[in-house]
Amino acid sequence: MATEEESAVKEPLDLIRLSLDERIYVKLRSDRELRGKLHAYDQHLNMILGDVEEIITTVEIDDETYEEIVRTTRRTIPFLFVRGDGVILVSPPLRST
Amino acid sequence: MCFKCEFYINPENDIVQVIGSMLSCKELVGFEMLFVSYFKELVGKEVTVELKNDLAIRSILHSLDQYLNIELENIGVVDPEKYPHMLSIRNCFIRESVVRHVQLPPDGVDIDILHDATRREARGA
Amino acid sequence: MREREARRSYVRTRNIIISPVLDGKKASQRAMILGIRHFTDRIGEGIGQPRFDSAEGEELMHVQPGVAIALGRLLPESPGTLYISNRRVMWLSDTDRDKGYAVDFLSISLHAVSRDPETYPSPCIYTQIEAEDAKDDQFEGSDAECPDESYLSKITEMRLVPHDPNQLDTLFDIFCQCVELNPEPLEGDDEENSWIFGEDFTDDGDQPEWHISEDLANPIGQVNGNHDLAHSVLHLQINDQRFEDAEEMEDANHN
Description:
The complex is a heterotrimer.
Chain A: H1 4-7, H2 12-17, E1 23-28, E2 32-41, E3 47-61, E4 68-82, E5 87-91
Chain B: E1 7-9, E2 16-18, H1 34-41, E3 46-51, E4 56-64, E5 70-73, E6 89-94, E7 99-103, H2 111-124
Chain C: H1 2-10, E1 16-18, H2 23-30, E2 36-38, E3 42-43, E4 49-50, E5 60-65, E6 67-71, E7 80-85, E8 88-93, E9 100-104, E10 108-114, E11 124-129, H3 149-152, E12 157-162, H4 168-181, E13 196-198, H5 220-223, H6 229-238, H7 246-253
Antiparallel strand pairs in C: 1-13, 2-9, 3-4, 5-7, 6-12, 7-8, 8-9, 10-11, 11-12
GO molecular function (chain A): RNA binding
Subcellular location (chain A): Nucleus
Family (chain A): Belongs to the snRNP Sm proteins family.
């Protein structure tokens, strides 16, 4: 399908180009994670994801025991634009090379 | 100036103006306009803008500029606990840099057109 | 150029891309301009007017007399005059030359016209301000007469109440115009090269948790419980002799 030139990975963003229309994992600031199908991106890593699962992790300290209580909230979003400046990490799907 | 999508840059102030649909215009390569043109097609539709301070605003997308600053109208549901004052507001203007993400209408733009526009932008960038 | 070559040679099998700009770095670049501050730099006789930074291209866009200002939950202060330049909003007391506030458009996150008397007694321009420490936005000041700098820097809401409510739409439009004149300062290295490749961690026996992209059904909450993925990756790279450009990541890692 893709020509050799198109599938070559030279720059970090090439990896993302090859992930178009595939499910990726995105870690955002403020302990948020997203998984969704990549439908669009630009060089700032602004992205549009489809069928997104968002996971928000919050850590609270118990008043009495001082133990950390980790809570995760999940929600699904059909279609989502993500601003690139909040992106910490992007993981394309694992592929055999 | 591209005649297909009626896109041009005003030489006096460098402001990009678009009249037609440019997301599917093949002349536009590497202008960093992918998301601006995408959002232009969503004007009039309902979106939920979530800010980095966790405030979420569900509203009609009224307009946006070349930096993706967003103007919303007919604000519906917000997070009243954190910013009770937001309930009284119908229209507001949001600075692009404070946006975390925007929930979009799934029927907004054809996925294939979006993929093609993304590949064109990636080649030009 | 040598750096770029070094990075390219580093490319082998990898499946993670990491942002070059983490919170602290950006915050420190912008620390000088965030939030509301006192403004007393007036020129001219009598009550005077604000001194603009014309050397830096600051120009007056609009003057609106008869405006009260309400910062956070403090009571409104008046009478005053609103000066809007292409860079910032300034409110100057009409009676006290030493009283005034300024906020850069870069710090104004959101602005709107508010006309609902139930949430605020007078129609106003409502703004949200990006403050230095937004976590303290519930902070309540005790000294309404003269909020100190540390209080000002925590304020996340500002209301501007013009005596003539018919001016609200004009002010709203001027604010829109001015926000557009103040895009985010460009981050120095905006090249795609500044994104960092991660190693393909699936070969690393010590890090079995890295298989995040292999199995998308894997509950990610467990993977990330108290494990900071990004920092661990950065550490791995910094310790890697083959990577010549570790300095930038050192910076990023000091957050």
